[in-house]
């Protein structure tokens, strides 16, 4: 992917004194990236997991330090930010960390933060941005995330032009396209480099039981599918008297054609033990097992009660490490059931990793795995992105996942990201990827697609939010329309803007010349010219009315009935060509209503090789598809045709076979005879086609009236041509100006609708100035900005004590859909019910203005009260172990919600300051202090040291 013909020579010549040196030889893509950075050029690095992209980030940090400027490293999640803070600090950089709940050395020249924090800084116009030389975007492929991908686009668009960009991503098929968008948006070149070579090649295995090396069937290596290996596995499955591929077990796994191993679920524990012991003997541990639900991870690891993979020295090291890490917790928190359970697993070399774990427990698991003390880790897919911890082997427990809306097969890009954890650079000659097939044996097509299929393209997830609109209208540095036009979603439409502007300039110049000629003609004969213009205007009205009548006729019941095989139609010539008659052969399916046998014959797919020519009696005819709206009239003429003959594709590229040609000649000769004595009359919409719709009939009458009032043609034909040219040019200019205007942006209608909502609800005034209410909404960044603001302005929190106020706010930040219903009483229950009413009214207002919002659904998606009771108790001082007993939500989710809730308290506190509400400000201070304690806010081990 490198553009430099000789990277080594260029690097040596241009970078004699690198800003940073490394204890290993740099790969070509790393050298090229460093070369570009030394030249102050932006770079996009696309490479597989563990290929060494972080080297480029380190070099950007080194350059900023050398130039006495600042650099910002952004990541999609706090886990990566915390880990990178530790890593960069160990590497000797002067680093600060800014996440939602942590601020460490914000004055440092090298800052690590989440992308959302950087977005917030840009909206606020933070001073530190002036000193930033580089912004490093890690995990750029996260732009595909449906919920948060828009943040990457916002930040890239809003960054000042003096800031250089370093984009790090997994390999994606449209890296050049995305780099082109970034370059056009920032008006600077973005150089693409990277590598498709894996630092450690992979081999892919199918396994469905057995304790020997022969029980692993190699189905792929180096991203190439091995059909012979798959066949061998399928044959072995058949011989073991399991269902053959194509059996009933496939539906859950790979769709029709997959098979399930009979009784496999009953022996799940024994097969896992078999697999792990087999890999242990072959020195293929440690292994990460990816499963796609927290419950499945827990079930699998808890079933391995008799498995012990560590020796005495390792057990001691694990014990000492856990003791040191957990010593920062209070005695009751050290005895939490989850902590005790995971410690027992760790002692035996087993681990589990998912969002339901307490953050400190999750970090202990990560660190022990990185030290090689854990032999098998059962994890959800977040481990593939969040932690730099390669393993010897990776195993997929399943190849299907629930993506939040439906169960589906995992995508090739997802498989590649997780499989990339297999193989430790410098330690393993090859990484082993195992597909567990004892529950469901995947089809050949599923395996082939995962190994050889393309990664998911980077696609825009840009969408307007009320917060974005208000923030942009408040800062006034960038219009909302400019944000829309620069988004990746509009990239293809905007890419040809320069050519369109050039074409518009030519048309404007031509129109100016035509207008000059028209003025001269008008001056020579004012009366005659006025008559010519009157005719032109009347003709335009006739043409417009005729088009509306045709549209009504072609979709009417009578029009549909008349459009049968052999019907003679008048077809618009187009491009200056004359109108022509043609016999109808087929209508593309889906264009018509109705039914019946005749519909079945006339409707169908278009022949794939259209158009083709037919010759008959010295005349050439064309069989071709025409747009539905090019039909100018349905005539009374109808001729016999043989559809099968006329629609049969030519075998030699010029004409149909002899039998078809003869039939076509008869049909075409009949058509000529029909037209020899003049054009056939058009069927009258009302009299012949029985047009009954009142509005359509009125259109017909209006058309007739306009035709009857049409003035005579101007005496000079040159005038007619001149007026035609002026009309066509004016239309082209108008169309081009519209296409280049903000009004043509894809999301412009959505923007206008949202502005109406904001004006009606008091966030914007009539001239679109942000009101006090709108400024408050700009502060609500942690939950839904409208509902949060409505709760504040309605006074829902006014009379509540701090512990109940913060419990109400918890509904704005809790994200899980399924949780046991809380038991609420008194003022807290009333406040929650009032919050629901406000959310419903906000959803109802959006629906009234035209947004696709169901008010009831809006309530349930913006307010989730599953942890309201838990937060209320926590704010009162209840022990964490006790609050866990009143909900079925896992401990990690509780902690994550309360941490985000502290951010919400800060949002509301800032809103109170803007409003001048000192009582609410003080209440949020007290609420924050009440929840900010013990295990929920224990410092990250990556930050505090472990």
TrEMBL record:
Annotated GO MF terms: ATP binding; hydrolase activity; RNA binding; RNA helicase activity
Domain of life from the UniProt record: Eukaryota
Keywords of this entry: ATP-binding, Cytoplasm, Helicase, Hydrolase, Nucleotide-binding, RNA-binding
Subcellular location: Cytoplasm
GO cellular component, one term: Ski complex
CDD domains documented for this protein: SF2_C_Ski2
Residue stretches making up the Helicase ATP-binding domain: 34-190
ATP-binding is among the record's keywords: yes
Disordered: annotated segments: 238-263
InterPro entries xrefs: Beta-barrel_MTR4, DEAD/DEAH_box_helicase_dom, Helicase_ATP-bd, Helicase_C-like, P-loop_NTPase, RNA-DNA_Helicase, SKI2-like, Ski2/MTR4_C
All residue ranges annotated as the Helicase C-terminal domain in the record: 271-473
Keyword check for Glycoprotein: no
Organism of origin: Micromonas pusilla (strain CCMP1545) (Picoplanktonic green alga)
GO biological process, one term: nuclear-transcribed mRNA catabolic process, 3'-5' exonucleolytic nonsense-mediated decay
Protein's UniProt name: Predicted protein
Short name of any one Pfam family annotated for the protein: MTR4_beta-barrel
Composition bias, Gly residues: 246-257
């Amino acid at each position: 992917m490198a553009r430099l013909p000789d990277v080594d020579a260029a690097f040596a010549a241009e970078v004699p004194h690198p800003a940073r040196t490394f204890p290993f030889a740099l790969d070509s893509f790393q050298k090229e990236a460093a070369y570009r950075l030394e030249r102050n050029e932006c770079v996009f690095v696309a490479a597989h997991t563990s290929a060494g992209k972080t080297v480029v980030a380190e070099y950007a940090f080194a350059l900023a330090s050398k130039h006495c400027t600042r650099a910002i490293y952004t990541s999609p999640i706090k886990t990566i930010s915390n880990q990178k803070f530790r890593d960069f600090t160990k590497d000797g950089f002067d680093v600060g960390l800014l996440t939602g709940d942590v601020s460490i050395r914000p004055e440092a020249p090298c800052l690590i933060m989440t992308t959302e924090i950087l977005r917030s800084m840009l909206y606020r116009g933070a001073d530190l941005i002036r000193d930033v030389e580089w912004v490093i975007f890690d995990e750029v492929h996260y732009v595909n995330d449906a919920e948060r991908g828009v943040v990457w686009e916002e930040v890239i668009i809003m960054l000042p032009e003096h800031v250089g960009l370093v984009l790090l991503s997994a390999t994606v098929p449209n890296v050049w396209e995305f780099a082109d968008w970034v370059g056009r948006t920032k008006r600077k070149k973005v150089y693409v480099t990277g590598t498709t070579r894996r630092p450690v090649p992979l081999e892919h295995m199918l396994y469905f039981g057995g304790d020997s090396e022969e029980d692993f069937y190699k189905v792929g290596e180096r991203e190439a599918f091995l059909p012979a290996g798959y066949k061998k596995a399928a044959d072995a499955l058949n011989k073991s008297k399991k269902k053959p591929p194509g059996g009933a077990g496939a539906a859950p796994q790979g769709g029709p054609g997959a098979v399930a191993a009979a009784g496999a679920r009953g022996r799940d524990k024994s097969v896992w033990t078999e697999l792990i012991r087999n890999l242990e003997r072959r020195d293929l541990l440690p292994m990460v097992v990816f499963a796609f639900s927290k419950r499945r991870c827990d079930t699998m690891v808890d079933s391995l009660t008799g498995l012990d993979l560590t020796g005495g020295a390792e057990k001691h090291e694990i014990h000492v490490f856990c003791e040191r890490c957990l010593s920062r917790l209070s005695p009751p928190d050290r005895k939490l059931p989850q902590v005790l359970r995971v410690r027992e697993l760790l002692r035996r070399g087993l681990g589990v990793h998912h969002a339901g774990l307490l953050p400190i427990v999750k970090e202990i698991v990560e660190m022990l795995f990185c030290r090689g003390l854990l032999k098998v880790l059962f994890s959800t897919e977040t481990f593939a992105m969040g932690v730099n911890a390669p393993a010897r082997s990776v195993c997929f427990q399943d190849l299907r996942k629930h993506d939040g809306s439906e169960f589906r097969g995992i995508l090739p890009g997802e498989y590649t990201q997780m499989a990339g954890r297999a193989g430790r650079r410098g330690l393993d000659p090859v990484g082993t990827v195992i597909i567990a097939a004892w529950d469901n044996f995947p089809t050949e097509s599923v395996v082939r697609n995962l190994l050889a299929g393309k990664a998911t393209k980077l696609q825009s997830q840009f969408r307007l939010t009320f917060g974005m609109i208000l923030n942009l209208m408040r800062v006034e540095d960038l219009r909302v329309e400019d944000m829309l036009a620069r988004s990746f979603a509009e990239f293809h439409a905007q890419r040809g803007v320069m050519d369109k502007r050039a074409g518009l300039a030519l048309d404007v110049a031509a129109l100016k010349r035509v207008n000059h000629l028209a003025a001269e003609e008008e001056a020579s004969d004012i009366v005659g010219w006025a008559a010519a213009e009157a005719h032109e205007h009347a003709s335009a009205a006739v043409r417009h009315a005729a088009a509306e009548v045709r549209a009504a006729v072609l979709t009417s019941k009578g029009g549909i009935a008349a459009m049968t095989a052999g019907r003679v139609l008048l077809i618009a010539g187009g491009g200056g060509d004359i109108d022509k008659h043609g016999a109808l052969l087929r209508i593309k399916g889906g264009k018509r209503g109705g039914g019946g046998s005749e519909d079945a014959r006339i409707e169908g797919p278009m022949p794939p090789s259209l158009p083709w020519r037919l010759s008959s009696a010295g005349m050439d005819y064309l069989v071709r598809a025409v747009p539905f709206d090019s039909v100018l009239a349905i005539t009374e003429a109808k001729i016999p045709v043989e559809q099968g003959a006329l629609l049969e594709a030519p075998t030699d590229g010029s004409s149909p076979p002899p039998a078809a040609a003869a039939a076509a000649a008869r049909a075409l000769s009949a058509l000529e005879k029909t037209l020899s004595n003049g054009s056939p009359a058009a069927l009258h919409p009302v009299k012949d086609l029985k047009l009954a719709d009142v509005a359509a009939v009125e259109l017909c009458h209006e058309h007739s009236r306009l035709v009857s009032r049409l003035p005579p043609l101007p005496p000079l034909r040159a005038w007619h041509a001149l007026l035609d040219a002026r009309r066509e040019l004016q239309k082209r200019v108008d169309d081009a100006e519209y296409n280049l205007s903000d009004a043509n942006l894809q999301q412009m209608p959505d923007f206008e609708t949202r502005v109406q909502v904001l004006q009606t609800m008091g966030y914007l005034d009539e001239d679109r100035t942000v009101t006090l209410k709108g400024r408050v909404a700009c502060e609500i960044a942690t939950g839904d900005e409208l509902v949060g603001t409505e709760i504040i302005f309605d006074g829902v929190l006014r009379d509540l004590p701090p512990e109940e106020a913060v419990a109400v706010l918890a509904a704005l930040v809790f994200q899980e859909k399924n949780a046991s219903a809380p038991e609420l009483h008194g003022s807290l229950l009333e406040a929650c019910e009032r919050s629901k009413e406000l959310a419903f009214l906000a959803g109802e207002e959006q629906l009234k203005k035209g947004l696709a919002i169901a008010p009831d659904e809006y309530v349930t998606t913006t307010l989730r009260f599953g942890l309201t009771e838990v937060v209320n108790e926590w704010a009162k001082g209840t022990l964490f172990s006790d609050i866990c007993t009143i909900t079925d939500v896992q401990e990690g989710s509780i902690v994550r919600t309360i941490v985000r809730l502290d951010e919400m308290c800060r949002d509301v506190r800032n809103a109170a300051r803007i409003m001048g509400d000192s009582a609410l400000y003080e209440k949020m201070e007290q609420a924050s202090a009440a929840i900010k304690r013990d295990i929920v806010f224990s410092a990250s081990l990556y930050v505090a040291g472990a």
